[in-house]
Amino acid sequence: MKAAVLFAPNQPLRLVSGIEVPDPGPGQVLVGLAYSGVCHSQLMEARGQRGEDRFLPHLLGHEGSGVVLATGAGVEKVSKGQKVVLGWIKGRGAEVPATRYRHGGAFINAGAVTTFNEYAVVSENRCVALPDGVPMDVAVLFGCALLTGAGIVTHEIEPPAGSSVAVFGLGGIGMSALMACRLYELEQLIAIDVAPEKRRLAAELGATATIDPSACDPVAEVRRLTHGRGVDFTIEAAGLAQTIEQAFDAVRRGGGRCVFASHPRSGERISLDPYELIAGKQIAGSWGGGSDPDRDIPRFAELYRSGKLPLEKLLPHRYALDELNTALDDLEQRRAGRPLIVIDPSVG
After folding, report:
1. CATH 3.40.47.10 for the 145-290 domain, yes or no
2. Would the pLDDT of 148 be above 90?
3. Contact 53/27 with Cβ under 8 angstroms?
4. How far apart are CA 113 and CA 60, in angstroms?
5. In the CATH scheme, what is the code of domain 3-143+316-347?
6. How far are the Cα atoms of 128, 150, 344 from residue 133, in angstroms, in the given order?
């Protein structure tokens, strides 16, 4: 197979051909990839921003869609010929944490799931059967962005009717959160991002106000829009220490809650005024939106089919596998919210 391989941090990924694909072992599934998404945490890994990398060279990618080509002993969750969603959040099934691919006289490492490759031997608990009515390209969002963003809204904040929410960062996770917020009767839904096309899409999707943080103090603007009070909830998905701090500052005292889904580069820290915690503000990180893939992929698929989650709007930027470095650059420069890698749509 061909795959995009990381050989050294902060160096372009190399497209390598002739990688041997092993048969799936016990608890593993062999998948032919149709599409892959590109997540900010994958960008951080490629750029060497997640700390020491002990597994070089290795494959990347943790959200994708494809078709099961073979299963190993003991696999019961999926079967040959099924369309599947691949993701990093653990679900039901065997946990087989690592795969090694032979290339010449050496090995290329991989984890329990990778998607920047034509084929993947993945752990059973990282695949879920693709529900009917979800296209294979849209399906990649069910592997990470949707479960995390919409999961934060539906599992972790559950905003009451009449409340207010501000979303900081409108990539795949932030936009998924924004869409999920439309399922609730909010008084205000504020979208914050430097990219004008993302703010336009947020307004189209139901944001009551949008803010360009490069043109103003976003915290001051949130307070202005809420008559000095601050919002009830913020969701931070921009991946910067500064935006986590801003999201915390933008919630109201006396019960306002900030939830952040992203993580800044290794070694960075956030700084909070402890008095604001005493005054009743809350802050928490989110691990995949508290989602269970086996429970939530079918649930979100039904919302997609009913038109309540128009996920196809999040995928205007498409790249071939050999354009993966361009996709990473565009994500880093905020030219693309959720790049989609087109690997082999014919497998579906």
Report:
1. no
2. yes
3. no
4. 8
5. 3.90.180.10
6. 15, 19, 19
